[in-house]
Amino acid sequence: MDADQKTQSQPHFSHPSEAEFARLLDYYEIPWEYEPHTFVLQEDEEGQIIEAFTPDFYLPEQDLYVEVTTMRQELITKKNRKIRRLRERYPHINIKLFTRRDFRTLLARWGMIERHDELIGQKALQHEPDRSNDQQPDR
Length: 139
What we know:
By secondary structure, this protein is an alpha+beta fold. It has helices at about 5, 15-25, 75-90, 100-110, 115-120, 120-125; strands spanning about 35, 40-45, 50-55, 55-60, 65-70, 95-100. It is globular, with a radius of gyration of 16 Å. Residues about 1-5, about 120-125 and about 125-139 have low confidence and may be disordered.
């Protein structure tokens, strides 16, 4: 992250795990953008957006979008479907789904397992917003 990015205020993250992921990226000085693009996944016959998807992070140096999700497993199926549709419609886009299991591994590796409940446990699950109807066009 360059000096200009560090002086900007942090975005309002949708979930504590997103804020923690951003801190990790900052620690390793990996430039990132928060929710910079929304991708149209499906339109009706009149061109109205039916379904869209906004990945959480974009890492410009890696040309990689990252979706951080600590949702319950049954809701991850919806995210996987959206990512599959994104890959079908935009094959040039690189995206990685960072799951609850990935986050648990990260917490253990960094000696932060005591923050499990706050970041991916029951407290975090109660905080999880429903963005399944995300329908904004690319900004």
